[in-house]
Amino acid sequence: MGWGIAQVIASRGMNVLLNDTNPLALERGLGQLKKALERLVKKDSMLPDDAAATLGRIHTSHNGLESVRGADFIIEAVAEDEALKKEVFRKLDRATRVETILASNTSSISITRLASVTSKPHRVVGMHFMHPAPVVPLVELAKGMHTSQQTYEAARSLAESLGKSVCVSQDRPGFLVYRLLMPLVNEAFFLLSENVGSAEDIDRSMRLGTNMQLGPLRMADNIGLDTCLSIMRTLHSQFADSKYRPCPLLVQYVDAGLLGAKSGRGVFQHDAGSGGDKQHASQPHLNLTMMPNNKMPNNQFHQHNNN
C-alpha cells in the first residue's frame, strides 16, 4: 500500500521518502511502482518524462527513522495490527519534531489509541487511502479525541491537493468505508462456504445486480485476505457483536497463506506480482470446505510469505 500512496504524492510534484526496515520490501515496492508507471505510459495516461520525474521524487531508506526527522507529514502504512502500529508511532514520536503531523493509513484501528502512545496526540490523524491508492479517488479522514483542527485541516488540504475527494468519519472501528464493506465481504465468504453459489456467481450477482465495479470476493483478494480478516476481528472485538464474527472459511484461507493478489492465490488465481491489476480465474476458486480433511494438494496454490 505504501508504494501506491508514494506514487500518488510524487506524481503531484512532492518529494517522498519510503521507509521500511526490510530492504527487500522496499525493492519489491519500487518494482511495483515502476511497473505501474510503465503501464500508465503505455496507455498514454502519462508522459514518459512525467513518469521519470515521479520516480525521481521517490527516495528510500531502511536504516531506522533518523531520515524522517525533517519530515513535515508522515503517513504510516504498516500491516493492520494495532500493536505493530503503536510501536511505529512510539518510534516516530521520538524521531520527529513536535510540528510533524503523524497520519495513519489504518482502515479500522482507533486513532485515539494510536495517538495515546505519542507525546503529541493533537498531531495524529487518520488518513485512509483506498486500495489501489493511485486509482480510487477517495481518502477517508478520521479525527481522534485529541486531533487538533489544524492537523485535520492539513490532512484534508493534502488529500485534496492530491486530487482526492474526502469523507470524514468519527473515530469508530472500521470508520465508514470498511465498517460497511467488510461485513459484505465476510458474508460473501459465508455464502461460499455454504455452497449457496460459486465464487464467480457471488461476484457476478453484486457486479451486475448492484453496479459494483468488482465483486466482494475479488475485491477482498485485491485488498488482501489477511487485511480483511484483521478488520473483521477488530470489528468483532470492539463491538462484541456476533454479526461481525469472521467467517471460518476466511480464517482458513489466511491460515493457508492464500492471501489474494499479494501471494498469487486467494479465492481466485492471480498473475504473479500483479498486485491485483491483472487477475484471472482460469483455475476455479479453491473451496477449502470441499477438500477431504482440509488438506491441500501441493500443486494447488503458490504460497508467498510477505514480511
State the share of residues found in helices, binned by percent: 40-55%
How many distinct beta strands? 7
Structural class given helices, strands, pairing?
alpha/beta
State the distance separating the first and last CA atoms: 13 Å
Biggest β-sheet description: 5 strands, mixed
Rg estimate, integer Å:
20 Å
Shape: globular
Tell me the fraction of residues in β-strands, as a range.
Answer: 5-15%
What's the assembly state of these chains? Answer: single chain
Note the run of SSEs as H and E: HEHHEEHEHEEHEHHHHH
Q: Supply the number of helical segments.
A: 11
Poorly predicted spans? 273-307
Which whole number gives the mean pLDDT?
A: 89
Strand order of the largest sheet: 3-4-5-6-7
List the defining traits of the structure above.
307 residues; alpha/beta; two-stranded parallel ribbon; 42% helix; disordered C terminus
General description of the model:
This protein has eleven helices and seven strands. It is α/β, with parallel strands linked by helices and 307 residues long. The strands form two sheets. A five-stranded mixed beta sheet has the order 3-4-5-6-7, with helices on both faces. 42% of the residues lie in helices and 11% in strands. A hairpin with an 8-residue loop joins strand 5 and strand 6. The protein starts with a helix and ends in a 52-residue tail after the last helix.
